[in-house]
Amino acid sequence: MNNIPVLCVTGESLAVTYEAALVKLYKEGTRFKTQYDKPGDPLSLDCTLNATVMNPELDPMIHQAFPGGIDELKEYVMELKGFKDHW
Question: Is pLDDT of 51 > 70?
Answer without folding.
Answer: yes
